[in-house]
Amino acid sequence: MSYKSLKIGKHKIKIPIVQGGMGVGISWDRLAGSVSKEGGLGVISTVGTGYYKDKKYIQKAISDRPYEVANFYSKDALKQIFKNARKICGDKPLGANVLHAINDYGRVVRDACEAGADIIITGAGLPTNMPEYTQGYDDVALVPIVSSAKALKIICKRWMQRYNRVPDAVIVEGPLSGGHQGFTYEQCFDPNYQLENLIAPILEEIKKWGDFPLIAAGGIWDKKDIDKFLELGCKGVQMGTRFIGTFECDAHENFKKIILEAKEEDIKLFKSPVGYPARGVKTELFKKIEDGSAPKIKCISNCVSPCKRGIEAKAVGYCIADRLSDAVLGDKEKGLFFTGSNGYRVQELISVKELMDRLVNGEDS
Question: Rounded to two decimals, what is the model's pTM?
Answer without folding.
Answer: 0.94
